[in-house]
Amino acid sequence: MQRGNTLETLPTSIDAQRSAVESAQKALARIILGKDEQITLALSCLLAQGHLLIEDLPGLGKTMLAQSLARTLGLSFRRIQFTSDLLPADIIGVSVFRQKSGEFEFQPGPVFSQLILADEVNRATPKAQSALLEAMEEYQVSVDGDTRSLPEPFFVIATQNPGDQIGTFPLPESQLDRFLMRVAMGYPDEASERELIAGGDRRLMLDGIEAVTTPETLIELQNSIRKQNVSDPLIDYVQALVRNTRESAEIEIGLSPRGAQALIAAARARSFIEKHTGVYPDDIQAVFTAVAGHRIKPAGSTRFRSPSELCQHVLDSVAIP
Prior knowledge:
The chain is an alpha/beta fold. It has two domains: 14-85 and 111-222, Rossmann fold, CATH 3.40.50.300; 229-317, Helicase, Ruva Protein, domain 3. It has helices at residues 14-31, 36-47, 62-73, 88-92, 126-138, 173-176, 190-198, 202-205, 215-225, 232-247, 257-273, 281-292, 307-317; strands at residues 52-55, 77-81, 93-98, 103-108, 115-119, 140-143, 146-149, 155-160, 181-183, 251-253, 297-298. It has a five-stranded parallel sheet. A two-stranded antiparallel ribbon has the order 3-4. It has a two-stranded antiparallel sheet with strand order 6-7. Helix 2 (36-47) packs across helix 11 (257-273), helix 11 crosses helix 12 (281-292) and helix 12 (281-292) packs antiparallel against helix 13. The longest helix is centred in the first third of the chain and has 18 residues, at 14-31.
C-alpha cells in the first residue's frame, strides 16, 4: 500500500535527484564491498516505498547494509533485536500511567522511526512478528483504541537467518508478502573478502558517512519514480510472466495481482537508478527474483533447487517483447 506524501518540499531537478542516488550508491559501495547488485536492489526497494527482507547466514553484512542505508539517506534509525521473548509492546510502545497528572501517557516504541531494522525477525514468536503487520501495510499502529501515524518516509528492513537454524519461527505467507523484495547477501568475492580481512572494522566507517539526501528529497525521488513510463508491451510482458507462474507445472502458487504491482513498482525504481527513460524488459528481469522469489510456492515435484533457479526458469520461458 502506498500512502500520499504530505511533507512540503521544494522541487528538485531530475538531474539532481539522479545525482543523489548515484552518490548513495557510491557511499554504500565503500562500506558494503563487492555487493553492487544487492545495493541497487535495496535502493530500488526503498525508493519504490517497499520494505526489504534480507535473508542469509550471520556475518555477511545484513545489519551493516541497513545501517549504511539509514546514514546515507539521512533517515532516523532504530534497531529492534527480535528474540523469543520479544513482546508487541516492545515494538509499538505502551501507555504509562502518570501519577502526577492522573492520566495515561503513550511512550512510543522504536517503530516510530523512519527506517526500522528488524534484526533476525524470524527468531521472535508469531505474536511479536504480527506487531509489524499493520505498521508495514498501513503506515500506522493502533494502541489502546487510538490510531497513530508513523513518520514519513517509513521503511522496514528485516533480516532473517535460514529457516533450518535453531530457534527460528518461519514467517507466514501474509507477512512475507508485506516485503516488496527479498535479497540474499551471499559470500563476498575473493578480492572483497581480502580487503575486509586486511582492513579495519567496517562499523567504524559508518561515522564517516554523510547523508546525500534528506527525507524531503527522498519523498521527491519516490514521486519521480512513480512517473517512470511503463509501455503497453511492457505490461504485456509482466502479465505473461505472472501467467506463467500460475500455469507452470513447477509452481504450486503463482504471483497475485499485488505481486504484479510490486514487480512494476520495483522495476520503475530500478529504471530510474539506471537512468532509463522508461521501464525496460531488463529492469523487470533484474528485480524479478527479488520480488517473486518469496511469493511463489514451488511444486513438490519441481526440479529446481532454489527460488532463484525457479524464477530464472520463468524468465527463460517467456519471450521478451
